[in-house]
UniProtKB/TrEMBL annotation:
Family label: Belongs to the bacterial solute-binding protein 2 family.
Organism: Jiella flava
Protein name according to UniProt: ABC transporter substrate-binding protein
Subcellular location: Cell envelope
Keywords, alphabetical: Signal
The keyword Signal belongs to this UniProt entry's keyword annotation: yes
Gene Ontology molecular-function annotations: carbohydrate binding
InterPro entries (UniProt xref): Peripla_BP_I (IPR028082), SBP_2_dom (IPR025997)
Matches recorded under SUPFAM superfamilies: Periplasmic binding protein-like I
Main subcellular localisation: other
Length: 313
């Protein structure tokens, strides 16, 4: 199928389609625009597009990660206006497959970032750029065991169930905990990537489990809500708290000792490399099917290091 896709692009170039025409649009469509994480993806994409003469980019996403139908509509609209490439962070692994299939059938290359499509949709895109979420989850599990030991109760504050990144990240965390310790996960809750929901859920968990030894907030809005709940409950320093992503709120929590560590993805790199990969595809170049954009464990000790500053936003 992918061979047919590249043949179609080559044929379009041969028969006069303006594959390298001026100001060709690459549509960057993310899970939501209401997140510093995704705005950092935008910054990376904007930096990259400046290096590619003859191209322009658009950036869009729904108001919330749960507005899946709105993201589907954005992809459909991009196809309808004839964009030359799409960089997509799918909010749902199944719901976005038909739209990506339509892009494929229209000869529009698609680069998937952050979260993968369901198995049936993988033949319709050309490259996947992401943190290795399973490895990142395992890294946070190792951090948890190192800090709390191998026994006791911990909780997981997750975000949207079934999303590719969540499956790998939280699954990797839980599997490693189960295999390498006797820590018990007493609660797993889903904030739907809403900070206020995460705050309320964490407040309830802390109340229900006063002897909780550790807690893991698995994405940006969830970790922010979790951190605020810890502060409000007067639990700072009384349990190990680990977060994911690296906006200003989370950085402050690390510096203040509310969070012991955060795992920070290369969100800027997703946008930057996403654009670069889309341009390569449009121009008929070979690309890697998977590009790992990495993760850095940031603590109070290394938060001012160059390695951390390259991923914090």
């Amino acid at each position: 199928m992918k061979t047919l896709f590249f043949a179609a692009v080559a044929a379009a170039a041969t028969f006069g389609a303006p594959v390298l025409a001026s100001a060709q649009e690459i549509a960057v469509i993310v899970k939501t625009t209401n997140s510093n994480y995704w705005q950092n993806v935008r910054k990376g994409a904007e930096a990259a597009i400046k290096n590619h003469s003859g191209y322009q980019m658009s950036f869009d996403g729904p108001a919330a990660e749960t507005a899946i139908a709105d993201e589907v509509d954005l992809v459909e609209n991009a196809i309808n206006r004839g964009v030359k490439g799409i960089v997509l962070a799918p909010s749902d692994p199944d719901a976005l497959v038909p739209a990506v299939k339509r892009a494929y059938e229209s000869g529009i290359p698609v680069v998937i970032i952050d979260s993968n499509l369901a198995e049936g949709g993988k033949k319709y895109y050309q490259s996947f750029l992401s943190t290795d979420n399973k490895a990142a989850g395992e890294a946070m599990a190792k951090e948890m065991i190192k800090r709390v030991g191998k026994t006791g109760d911990i909780a997981v504050m997750s975000y949207v169930p079934g999303v590719g990144s969540e499956i790998g990240r939280v699954g990797g965390f839980k599997d490693y905990i189960a295999k390498h310790s006797k820590l018990k996960v007493v609660s797993t809750l889903y904030s739907q990537s809403q900070m206020a929901t995460a705050l309320n859920q964490t407040t309830d968990v802390l109340s229900a489990h006063p002897n909780l030894k550790g807690i893991f907030g698995a994405n940006e809005p969830t970790a922010v809500g979790m951190g605020r709940a810890i502060v409000q409950a007067g639990k700072k320093g009384q349990l190990v708290a680990l977060g994911f992503d690296g906006n200003e709120d989370l950085q402050k929590f690390v510096k203040d000792g509310v969070l012991d560590a955060i795992a920070v993805q290369g969100s800027y790199q997703m946008g930057e490399k996403g654009i670069d990969t889309a341009v390569d595809l449009i121009e008929g170049k070979k690309v890697e099917p998977f590009i790992n954009t990495g993760v850095v464990i940031v603590t109070k000790k290394n938060i001012d290091s160059s390695e951390a500053k390259n991923v914090l936003y």
